[in-house]
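Repro case for the chain-ordering regression, as requested:
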Amino acid sequence: MRTLIQAAALADGTSTDILIDGGVIVELGTGLNAAGARRVDAAGLIALPGLVDLHTHLREPGFEQSETVLTGSRAAAIGGFTVVHAMANTFPVADTAGVVEQVQSLGDAAGYVTVRPVGAVSAGLLGENLAELGAMASSRAAVRVFSDDGKCVSDALLMRRALEYVKAFDGVIAQHAQEPRLTEGAQMNEGTLSGELGLAGWPAVAEEAIIARDVLLAEHVGSRVHICHLSTAGSVDVVRWAKSRGIAVTAEVTPHHLLLDEQLVHGYDATYKVNPPLRRAEDVQALREGLADGTIDIIATDHAPHPLEAKECEWSAAAFGMVGLESALSVAQAAVVDTGHIAWTDVARVLSQAPASIGRVAGYADGIVAGAPANLTLYDPTEARDFSAAMLRGRSVNTPFVGRTLPGQVIATIHRGNPTVLDGELIDPETVAAHRATADGAHHG
Amino acid sequence: MRHLLSTRDLDRDDAIAILDVAEDMADVAGREVKKLPALRGKTVVNLFFEDSTRTRISFEAAAKRLSADVINFSATGSSVSKGESLKDTAQTLAAMGADAVVVRHGASGAPRVLADGGWIDAGIVNAGDGTHEHPTQALLDAFTIRRRLHGAASRGKGLDGTTVTIVGDILHSRVARSNVWLLSALGAAVRLVAPPTLLPVGAAEWPVEVHYDLDTALATAPDVVMMLRIQAERMHAAFFPNPREYARRWGLDDARLSRLGSDTIVMHPGPMNRGLEISSGAADSRHSTVREQVANGVAVRMAVLYLLLSGTVED
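-- result from build under test --
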């Protein structure tokens, strides 16, 4: 079916109609007319390229009480995403071709977003032996991003080998930078507040030391390396230095680290327990500046669903993590757009083009242009909403943003030419799956 | 007072009010009938997720002297290993009609979670949470210091001009944290002395002076020296080379004891490692308040339970 999006504002501010046909953007321009097309009035809305999350925990297989590929895909779609990268710390771990193909199949069947599985770096995430990286790369899932996320590849030799090995198929290692010995039992950012609250500290140096080591390793072996969820001012400095040396490092920051700081831990509310931990206000500021000057390449959610009981307990017993797909764009707007750090064109870069480039996802390089696959998001930046759990569409509700007023709302998401969200609400699963099947038929038939 | 979770929440007037009520309660201990009817019909639950016989029996004695019904709920082990969550335990106690819950827990902040969770309406008393706080210990320490300084004229007084030197494992000590906030709120000058490895990052921003050298700190003639227990598990985690070196540098041995002023008070929250952080000579000397601390603990806990369950001291 053809879709005509009328009077949308592109990220650079120009107003245009967007005609979509057969999963492709066929024409841009004002006053387009297309008889019989579904019309979407986008007056006052920003059209962004479909958002790409490089860091998502979909929890399936193994932890379906927290999230499934379907429920996580729905959370992604309502947040404006058209691609998510599903992290490998499932059960079984995504360390073989079989598991990554299964995750990809579940994503295809759901149809809300393109699910790109991330492969584990080490077998079983144990940090001892390499997982079958080549098999995952050549599988139907065509894995390009490898990560032990949740755990650091702390062994320097294993990290070196992984960085080297994935060059054979243009892969990248996404490092969860956390020196394990410096963070044994760590509960929150180490500083004055952790001392006062009596919670074991997670020092900034435990992140910065691993990043420093890994950028030097990447330089030595001529590989690219991606740093997950930077959280400290020192990490921004290390990555800035590495980039100035020409090292092929990319870095991500989460929406929550751009908006929230450690003072929220005061009441021991485990909603605010996350890894890496919320840091000082100075770190938040440095992360915003790092994103603005290009030191940090992308925003990625680290969407980490957990059931209620994993958060309704004493701090040290609670799980680390926050859901973030549904709120990501609004939080980014609040933290870095409305504060003047970046423009909407930068949002398109850090939440779509750049993460797609790191993950080697095709079709996102040029944004919204004629001939590109029709993946886009219509966003109303003017509405301010009191964020609530009712706005979540995944299975878990462990968001730190409940009770905050956040700007903006995703009004529509188009994935491969078909809407997954219209009028601010999800399209039902049967319709989405049917579209998906039709689209496959059109492509392959 | 709705809960007692931390001494950080107490200002000078609150603290003095609690100590003054504790003076009244201490008077009761001197009577032939050591019992008041104040909390008749109230139920106090001692919810202990960590073993601590001395703290538990102190609270138990306090509640019984106020005629409350006491239930001891020993839930040793973390909620996770035990399989029952803090929430379920709290709801169980609520269903039993607990009016106050005295909680000891290995996790910092667990009493706060209990107070804020909406699972139980009872007043919560923190009887030691992880490495966070132990407010009744600090109150009994302050009470003990005030009595040594002012005797029968203690009521209404703070600890202005008093210097208190706290020595040992500050990093892991809930007693140290509670004392830092409470003693400084009462006007005392607090000094911390510890190996740098056993001081929390950021301790310099607390209302304290930080020293690494015990002899230098003792040379300034503090009014109070409070020795903290060194836990066995610290001895194998590279906080210091070995117990001998620790005792040499940071232990209150007989030589250091002999250099103290004649009125200097030596305190220890117990249980003591004699020969490590404190010598037997120091523990048993006339400077030592170790046994007074135990006796005063009951009076202070009576005051806290009384204020929690009968009202007053504005919150």
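Ordering looks correct now. DSSP finds twelve helices and nine strands in chain B.
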